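Continuing the batch. This is chain 6 of the set; chains 1 through 5 are on the previous pages. Same settings as before, nothing changed between runs. Recording input and output for traceability.
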Amino acid sequence: MSLPPDQTAATKQKKQKFWQKIILFIGAGSFAATAMVPVIGGIVESMNQSATTEIGQVDQEAQLKEQEAGLVAVLEREPDNVNALQGLVQVRLALGDLEGARPHLARLVELYPEEQVLQDLLAQVDENLGRTETSPTTNTTDAP
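Output for chain 6:
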C-alpha cells in the first residue's frame, strides 16, 4: 500500500520543515556562541588579573623585605652610607613602617641639614606618628 500523493507531499514538507529548524537552531547557536567568546574571555581575563595583582602585591612586599635586609646589612658595616640610608627610608616608607624609617631619616637630616625636602619628610613622619600614637580625646562633659 502506497500513500496517496497528497500525504507523500505533506510528509515530505514535514521532513523539510524539521531539517530547516535543525539547521536554523545550529546556525543560531553558532552565532550566539561566537558572540559570547569576547564576553567570556573578558571575564576570565579579569579574574586572572585580580589573582595576578594579589600575587604581585605579595611578591612586591617580599622584594621590599629582601631589600630592607640588604640595606640594614650595609648600614651595619657603614652607618653613614647615604645611599643605604636613603634606600632604607624609601623601603620602610613603602612598607608603611614609619617608626622604622624615622631614625634613618633623622640621620639623613643630620648629614644634610640644608635639604628642606628631608626636613619636610621628617616633619610629616613625625606628624603621622603623633597621630597614630595619641588617640584624640573626647570631651565627655556636657556644656550647660
